[in-house]
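Worked example 2:
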Amino acid sequence: MKQFFAKISRRTWIIIGVVAVILIAVIAVRSRGSNATTFQTVPVERGNLVASIGATGSVRAKQSAVLIWQTTGVVDSVNVEVGTRVTHDEVLASLDKNTLSQNIILAEADLESAKKALEDLLSSDTARAQALRNVDKAEAAYEKAYNWRVQLNGKIDIEDTYYEFGVLKVRKYKGYANAETIADADENLALTKAQLEDARRAYERLQNGADPADVASAKARVAAAQSTLNMAFISAPFDGTITQAEPSVGDQVSAGKEAFRIDDISHLLVDLQVSEVDINTVSVGQAATLSFDAILGKEYHGQVVEVGQAGDPVQGVVSFVVKVELTDPDELVKPGMTAAVNVVVEEVKDVILVPNRAVRVLNADRIVYILENGLPKQVKVTLGATDGTNSALVGGDLKEGDLIILNPPSFSGPFGG
């Protein structure tokens, strides 16, 4: 036997080896072909389905402000620190009065003076009483001018007293008045009538209190003085929490230097970019779930509070801004964190569920395969809402209990391509 193998040439051995390799490859291919005919199936079931769209965004406060100094000075007091809850108009820090400019120092006196003037205007009755007296004087002057003009219409023999440079003088008129005297009387009558109307209007404005225009002017002076004085302080523009605090007592600051950041963290929002494909399924009031990489093992809830009505192209895709507000935030959620958000856009109950992995597209139709008598059968389906794993069956000849094929055939043949 050994001699027999010795007689076989090297070339013959090479040919035998190549043939053996080919036979092994053929056996392996046939083995894989027979395995491909083993289908993975699951029975068709009914159930509930929650359709949602997912997006990511950063958490932000509903209200947020960076507060800066309005003037130059030395910090005299700091009343808050990071994490302090503050209320609207609460003073957060102030500057030393001795380091302020002169106009700010004088604003305190201007403010008190302006407040007193406003108070006098609103509470004093002097202006109304003076206006009434002015009406009486104007009526007397008009009556005298009127009577004088009437007398000039006929023959006259009268004396008229008047003052000239502080000296009382007497004018005498006899016979008929000339044209110049009548014209002068007409002008005087028109003037006294206009003065009477002005006096009456002024009194009417004061009948129910101070003149509104005077009150508005006095309030403006108070506001101007207060605004100048406020440059020495930093106060909270709304209720919130101090999230950044820069100043310390003794710091030299200048106009424009940042002092604090305040955020209303009781109301937290996430701005999402939703594509134009999905935007019409989103509406105000829809529920959402949120998760954070920084907060493991905890899920939060939210609600859509605003849906953008104009889209912007982002990397070639038109997106719309959707605002989601957290409904159960806690101290772990902080502005700036990245949130993964799922907005529930539709919820359907008691429907036939079709696994998405089983669906194929053939000639623009969606199809699935079911196993019937050991062979795959093609079924055309119409699908509705999806949760990413399953879709709701809207139309098609599928029923509960059918064995749907999860790995349908991918070859051309009697069962489709």
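The mean pLDDT is 81. The first strand starts at residue 41 and ends at 43.
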